[in-house]
Amino acid sequence: MEALSSDHAIPPADQVGELAALQAEGKTAAIGLSKVTAEQIRHACQVASVAAVQNCLNLDEPDDPALAYCAGTGIPYVPYRPLNPGRLITAAGIDESLGWLLALGEHVAPSPPPAARTT
After folding, report:
1. Mean pLDDT, 10 residues at a time, over the chain (119 residues)?
2. What is the pTM of this model?
3. Inter-residue contact 113 to 83 (CB < 8 Å)
4. What is the CB neighbour count within 10 angstroms for residue 97?
5. Closest CA to 110 of 85, 81, 84, 88
6. CA distance readout (Å), 111 to 14, 69, 96, 100, 107
7. What are the beta bridge partners of residue 43?
8. Burial per residue of 22-59, b for 16 or more beta-carbon CB atoms within 10 angstroms, e otherwise
9. Do 67 and 104 touch, CB atoms closer than 8 A?
């Protein structure tokens, strides 16, 4: 289950608390966090086992303090928008972007964009 990006009306601590309760009951095996700060991850780890973090990270938006936090704690980090949609990227640009992301560490696993729908 993923928390923190879906409902901004509910405080993040309450969202993680509910997911931790579901995890304790065996109703979910893993908790993932999205669009979170390093501080939010730290707080979540105090009440639950965090399986992964997914935040925006690419060459145009290269700074995310959560990346360093995840590296230090061994939490897998899944950057979304790794190729920054809306930006014209050549094949060389794709190689550069993915190479940069993969060089950030073994805990980084870029999330590919969804395939275009053809109808």
Report:
1. 62 87 91 92 92 91 94 94 70 81 91 60
2. 0.80
3. yes
4. 19
5. 81
6. 27, 19, 15, 14, 13
7. none
8. ebeeeeeeebbbbbbbbebbeebbebbebbbbbbebbe
9. yes
